[in-house]
Each structure stands twice: as structure tokens, then as C-alpha cells.
Amino acid sequence: MTDTTKNKSDLVFFTQVVGRETYGAWYRVLPVDCIEILAIGLMRTLPLDGRDPEDVACDALEEFVRARIKLGQPVPALPAEVTVHANHTCPPKNPEGVTH
Fold first, then answer.
1. Residue 21: CB atoms within 10 Å
2. Residue 41's closest CA among 28, 56, 57, 25?
3. In this predicted model, what pLDDT tens digit does every residue of 26-68 receive, in sequence order?
């Protein structure tokens, strides 16, 4: 990842499509081969285990959103004008964003 995708705090804003909605969060790489993910209702530290930080972040956000939806809990989606500012956009699992 180039330095242009990070702001001064090293937080990377990314989006993930789940279903027909787009959700956003931030992550930063920690010096101990982990990432920290931050979103509304979500703050986790996860090991990279040799994976790219973007992949770990995308999977964690998708898992979080799907769990909240399944429980009937609100998850605020992002308006289109916000998603264009993402440093990274996670590719959907398929065109509908649904995991097989």
C-alpha cells in the first residue's frame, strides 16, 4: 500500500458491500502483525496471520455487518457521496455481495 492511502493517523478508510448496501470502517496496521478495526459498534484487534491487512479488515467488517443484520440490530449504511472517499473498496463476494 502506498503512503497516499493513509492519513496522518495511519487509519485507512475502507468500504464493504453486503447485500445491496455499502458499509464503512477504518483500520490501521499495528507493529505486532495485527490490525485494529474501527466502525460504529465495532472495535477489534485481529492477527494478520500472513494475510493482507485489507483482506482481514474486509472479512471482519462483513462478518460484523452480517451478524448484526441476523440479530435484527441496526447497521448504518453509507451514502454514495461518502463511499467515494474510501482508500480501499473491498470486492463483494459476488455481484450481490452475498457469501456462498
1. 14
2. 25
3. 999 999 999 999 998 899 999 999 999 999 999 999 999 999 9
**pLDDT value at position 94?**
57
The 3-state secondary structure of the chain, one letter per residue: CCHHHCCCCCCEEEEEEECCEEEEEEEEEECCCEEEEEECCEEEEEECCCCCHHHHHHHHHHHHHHHHHHCCCCCCCCCHHHHCCCCEEECCCCCCCCCC
* Nearest of 31, 65, 33, 64 to residue 46 by alpha carbon: 33
Give this prediction's pTM. Answer: 0.80
Mean pLDDT, rounded, of the chain:
84
Residues linked to residue 36 through DSSP beta bridges, in sequence order = 28, 45
Residue that is written with C-alpha cell 464493504 in the block: 16
Contact 33, 47 (CB under 8 A): yes
